[in-house]
């Protein structure tokens, strides 16, 4: 049966949709995007965005591998390395809100493919850099280019997959994307030995440009260009939502810290504190990256299972946070555990975006997914920048000995970050006031909505996400 014939029996709202494949725009008449299922949905939607996130993770963690040759060739200390590496997070954080709005307006295909071109230019510029300033600016350009790598994929998942499967599919995407962190260890080390760090980034520039072309020509999308902002709420409503600010500090403190630690300071700790050789460090980083990928699948599957059992993902996120802090305490207190064990737990927490974005998808309708995910990512990447740069600044307060910082320097730097995470956990667990507010006259207090959301059954939580956001404001 021809597409035009099938279209004649569709519902009115479906008849306004079309699906385009690349610039050639293969029209499907009124064929709704939900009809693309199975392997076609995986090949045309899931895998292309997973590739973009793969590259994002590679860029995020590669400085841990190239930091030694960078420092030797250009003459960088810990603060310099921390700032250059953290520039990625700073630009990511600054770009999340506008990127989220662009995703809601123009769709993930257009936004992701355009920004990956910027990332390719940044990688080429990094390969040609000759000093700290050019490295910093190039790293910032890379950060801008991958600013939509996660949120574009999350937006596509929300648009194309059933809501009850979002956490599981998020887990699969983060799992495959986290393989970029795996590739940034031993495989990248082999390339680095042959090409040097400049040649490595030139290869990355070519691959990233190819990914941009692939996403632009392959990924289907519903027509979203020029769509008006949603009627219920918007960015301002999200930022006034008490539920958002209950989750965001804990999610940002834990996930942002995990990213900053694994992306740069894990290799430094293993070399300076544990006394590992470079080969041993690369092997350890490969193991943590594999655990990051496996952890994404584990957390996605666990969230999917607990959702069916009626347990809220907020509780699961809190338990992951407690485990994360325990692992860092083992490092700071130098507990007699295997050197790699705490870092494996830290790696798993880096994949906890699976939980955070599943929570956000329950709070807001899909029309606000880009804005909501972007707002949460501002906190993630902002904390990642502060943690990555701040640890470097604290380390430089102690003199180096034979090219290594003392153990006490790492204990203090990691301990300060850990204390901030504990404060975020206390904020998350603290009871909210239940006094009446002027905006709560008709809908009940914001606190009651927050507490009800924690214990609501999955069906009730999905229904609540369609309610006006003004019911849960400060």
Instruction: Give the overall silhouette.
Output: globular
The termini sit apart by: 54 Å
Q: Profile the largest sheet.
A: 2 strands, antiparallel
Name of the top-level CATH class: Mainly Alpha
H/E topology pattern: HEHHHHHHHHEHHHHHHHHHH
Number of helices: 19
Poorly predicted tracts of residues: 1-34, 223-229, 434-458, 464-474
- Mean pLDDT across the residues is 81
Rg (CA only): 22 Å
Query: Order of strands across the biggest sheet?
Result: 1-2
Total count of domains: 1
**CATH architectural grouping:** Up-down Bundle
| Beta strand count | 2
Q: In CATH, what is the homologous superfamily? A: MFS general substrate transporter like domains
The CATH topology comes to Growth Hormone, Chain: A
**Percent of residues in beta strands:** under 5%
Task: Give helix % range.
Answer: over 70%
Structural class: mainly alpha
């Amino acid at each position: 049966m021809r597409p035009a014939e099938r279209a004649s029996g569709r519902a009115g709202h479906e008849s306004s949709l079309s699906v385009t494949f690349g610039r050639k725009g293969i029209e499907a008449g009124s064929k709704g995007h939900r009809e693309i299922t199975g392997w076609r949905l995986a090949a045309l939607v899931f895998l292309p965005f997973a590739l973009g996130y793969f590259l994002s993770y590679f860029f995020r963690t590669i400085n841990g591998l190239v930091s030694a040759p960078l420092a030797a060739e250009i003459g960088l200390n810990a603060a310099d390395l921390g700032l250059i590496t953290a520039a990625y997070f700073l630009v990511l954080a600054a770009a999340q809100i506008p990127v989220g709005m662009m995703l809601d307006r123009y769709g993930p295909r257009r936004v992701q493919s355009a920004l990956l071109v910027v990332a390719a230019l940044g990688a080429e510029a990094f390969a040609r850099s000759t000093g700290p300033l050019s490295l910093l600016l190039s790293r910032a350009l890379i950060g801008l280019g991958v600013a939509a790598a996660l949120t574009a994929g999350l937006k596509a998942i929300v648009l194309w997959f059933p809501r009850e499967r979002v956490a599981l599919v998020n887990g699969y995407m983060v799992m495959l994307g986290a393989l970029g962190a795996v590739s940034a260890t031993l495989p990248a080390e082999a390339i680095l030995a042959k090409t040097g760090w400049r040649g490595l980034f030139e290869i990355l520039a070519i691959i990233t440009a190819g990914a941009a072309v692939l996403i632009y020509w392959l990924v289907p999308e519903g027509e979203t260009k020029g769509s008006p902002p949603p009627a219920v709420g918007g960015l301002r409503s999200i930022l006034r939502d008490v539920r958002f600010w209950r989750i965001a500090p804990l999610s940002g403190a834990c996930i942002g810290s995990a990213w900053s630690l694994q992306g740069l300071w894990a290799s430094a700790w293993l070399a300076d504190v544990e006394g590992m050789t470079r080969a041993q460090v690369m092997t350890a980083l490969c193991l943590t990256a594999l655990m990051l990928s496996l952890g994404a699948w584990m957390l996605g599957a666990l969230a999917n299972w607990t959702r069916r059992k009626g347990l809220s993902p907020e509780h699961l996120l809190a338990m992951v946070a407690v485990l994360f802090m325990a692992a860092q305490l083992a490092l700071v207190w130098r507990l007699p555990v295997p050197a790699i064990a705490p870092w494996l737990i830290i790696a798993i927490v880096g994949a906890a975006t699976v939980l955070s974005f599943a929570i956000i998808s329950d709070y807001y309708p899909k029309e606000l997914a880009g804005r909501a995910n972007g707002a949460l990512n501002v906190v993630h990447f902002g904390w990642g920048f502060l943690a990555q740069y701040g640890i470097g600044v604290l380390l430089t307060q102690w003199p180096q000995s034979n090219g290594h910082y003392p153990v006490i320097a790492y204990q203090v730097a990691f301990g300060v970050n850990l204390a901030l995470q504990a404060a975020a956990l206390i904020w998350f667990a603290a009871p909210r006031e239940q006094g009446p507010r002027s905006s709560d006259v008709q809908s009940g207090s914001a606190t009651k909505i927050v507490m009800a959301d924690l214990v609501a059954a999955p069906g009730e939580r999905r229904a609540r996400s369609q309610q006006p956001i003004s019911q849960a404001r400060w």
